[in-house]
Amino acid sequence: MVPPLVLDIDGTLTDADGRLDPRAFEVLPAWDAPVILATGKAFPYPVSLCHYLGLPQTVIAENGGVVLADGEVTFTGDREAAQAAADEFV
């Protein structure tokens, strides 16, 4: 069994200017194991990229704070801690 392939988007699938390497359109959909896209960016970004590349939507986003696997979204961040930090600036 081939293990899942987890790829960071920024600087791995994209170049320094944020352009997607065109080889990804051939290689990733044909990969013999699940492909998981990871990024520190907002959740919609990797989900849209999965759709664009023709991949199942399995992503890790927002520095691990949001995970989409098997159609289920899991929030791993601490909402109360984030709110407390935001309240310090309001």
What are its keywords?
alpha/beta, 21% strand, 5-stranded mixed β-sheet, 5 strands, 4 helices, 90 residues, Rossmann fold
In short:
This protein has 90 residues and is an alpha/beta fold. The chain contains 4 helices and 5 strands, in the order E-H-H-E-H-E-E-E-H. It has helices at 9-13, 24-27, 44-53, 79-87, and strands at residues 5-8, 35-38, 59-61, 66-69, 72-75.
What does this structure look like?
The protein is α/β, with parallel strands linked by helices and 90 residues long. It has a single domain (5-87), classed as Rossmann fold (3-Layer(aba) Sandwich), CATH 3.40.50.1000. 31% of the residues lie in helices and 21% in strands. The protein contains four helices and five strands; from the N terminus they run βααβαβββα. The mean pLDDT is 94.
CATH superfamily: HAD superfamily/HAD-like
CATH topology name, in short, is: Rossmann fold
What order do the SSEs take from the amino end to the carboxyl end, as H and E? EHHEHEEEH
**Range of helix content:** 25-40%
Task: Note poorly predicted spans.
Answer: none
Radius of gyration: 15 Å
**Oligomer, anyone?**
single chain
* Strand content range: 15-25%
What's the tally of helices? 4
Task: Give the CA-based shape.
Answer: globular
Q: Could you say how many structural domains there are in total?
A: 1
Structural class by SSE content: alpha/beta
